[in-house]
Amino acid sequence: QVQLVESGGGSVQAGDSLTLSCAESGRTGTPFVMGWFRRAPGKDREFVAGINRSGNLREYAESVKGRFTISRDKARKTVSLQMNSAKPEDTAVYYCAASTNFVSRDPREYEYWGQGTQVTVTS
What we know:
Blueprint: E1 3-7, E2 10-13, E3 18-25, E4 33-39, E5 45-51, E6 58-60, E7 68-73, E8 78-83, E9 92-99, E10 112-113, E11 117-122
Parallel strand pairs: 2-11
Antiparallel strand pairs: 1-3, 3-8, 4-5, 4-9, 5-6, 7-8, 9-10, 9-11
């Protein structure tokens, strides 16, 4: 059974940095395509970043481009989201997701989801 477990959330001040991690277990063979999504209070879940199986293709939401970096360690089966220059509008629950298909901004393309980790950015 595939499990995704996020860690690293917390409360930071605007301008600070934070790194989220996602550990995958329960599957062998071809790596997943991985993504990060977030849901802010009162808003829909939105795509943040995605990375392909080999790690050489990354996509970002316009709102985080240049500030966030997604990366993966295939040997450790972890995916990270480095968040720099955090803004109050980054406050949300962040979810790690895995897909057997391709990098997509559509959450329906991801079959597996973590429980989420809260990130709060104060001004």
